[in-house]
Amino acid sequence: MEGTGRLYSDLTYLWPVVSPPEDYQEEARHWRDAIYAGLGQGRHRILELGAGGGHNLSHLTDHFDAVAVDLSPHMLAHSRRLNPQVEHHQGDMRTVRLGQTFDAVLIHDAVSYMLTEEDLRATFATARAHLRTGGLLLVAPDLVAETFREGMTLHWDIPPPSRPGVLEVSVEERLTDPDPSDTKIESLITYTITENGHRRVETDLHVTGLFSLATWLALMEDAGFQTEILPLPGDGDGCGVHLFSGLLTDRDS
Q1: pLDDT at position 112, please?
Q2: pLDDT value for 235
Q3: What is the secondary structure of the chain as a DSSP string?
Q4: What local confidence, expressed as pLDDT, does residue 210 receive?
Q5: Model-level pTM?
Q6: Are 82 and 62 in contact (CB under 8 A)?
Q7: What are the φ and ψ backbone dihedral angles of 241, each rounded to 5 degrees?
Q8: pLDDT for res 99
Q9: What is each CA distance from 129 to 12, 94, 95, 146, in whole angstroms?
Q10: Which of 67, 220, 55 is nearest to 138 (CA)?
Q11: How, if at all, do strands 225-231 and 242-248 pair?
Q12: Is the CB of residue 95 less than 8 Å from the CB of residue 71?
């Protein structure tokens, strides 16, 4: 997939350091509550598309039976170690078909790598193909057009290691829109890595999609979902504050 970046290949080993599972605990509670709000209480069967390293999912497996899909074999290896009870599949959220039906489909910030409206339509078709009638789709992009600012710079909050000699990383991410006429933005991420007393810098370019709130809702509704927007805690920088919720009322329409 275009522009998914080194973090999902040769730099994947940094993922548990720069985005540790414990950082997802509060947000995962919002996802759990959204599932219960949409479907009622119960041990529902969920599918996460673009599960990445499985960090958000790790806080949901006590409550739900889960299956995970991700494009990156490196990320899947992380998730398998963290979530050994979860069935994992490698696949593209636009095209994967598991031949299984779920109560809910979850797509976290991996949906940000959908670059066009056609990508989103294909993703929502995948969700629909895996949901029962009355099933729930939850989607949370990093940014929408209304929260993007040209040149915005994000400093990832990474606590220092608990003991000397452990891998230490600081991260800066700068977002730009090279061509405002399309639906793509770029994130240049700089990792400053200290390991065994040696410091080095790695850079990583990610290309992601940027769509308005109205576009997200319209495309979900076109796919047959009744939509609403729920709040997420985010990181205080305008990222990750929208959770799109959609109920599939008629699977065969």
Answers
A1: 96
A2: 77
A3: -TT--GGGTTTGGGHHHHS-GGGGHHHHHHHHHHHHHHH-SS--EEEEET-TTSTTGGGTTTTSEEEEEES-HHHHHHHHHH-TTSEEEE--TTT---S--EEEEEE-GGGGG--SHHHHHHHHHHHHHTEEEEEEEEE--S--TTT--TT-EEE---PPPSSTTS-EEEEEEEEE-S-TTSSEEEEEEEEEEEETTEEEEEEEEEEEE---HHHHHHHHHHTTEEEEEEE----SSSSS-EEEEEEES-TT-
A4: 98
A5: 0.94
A6: no
A7: -110, 0
A8: 98
A9: 30, 11, 10, 30
A10: 220
A11: antiparallel
A12: no
Structure tokens belonging to residue 61: 């497996």
Given this model, what pLDDT does residue 251 score?
60
Nearest Cα to 124, choosing from 143, 103, 108, 105?
105
Alpha carbon distance 145, 99 (integer Å): 34
Rg of the chain taking only CA atoms, in angstroms: 18
- Residue-wise pLDDT tens digits, 49-105: 999 999 999 999 999 999 999 999 999 999 999 999 999 999 999 999 999 999 999
Question: Contact, 27 vs 240, CB < 8 A?
Answer: yes
Segments in the chain below pLDDT 50:
none
Is there a contact between 212 and 144 (Cβ–Cβ < 8 Å)? yes
Residue 196's pLDDT is 83
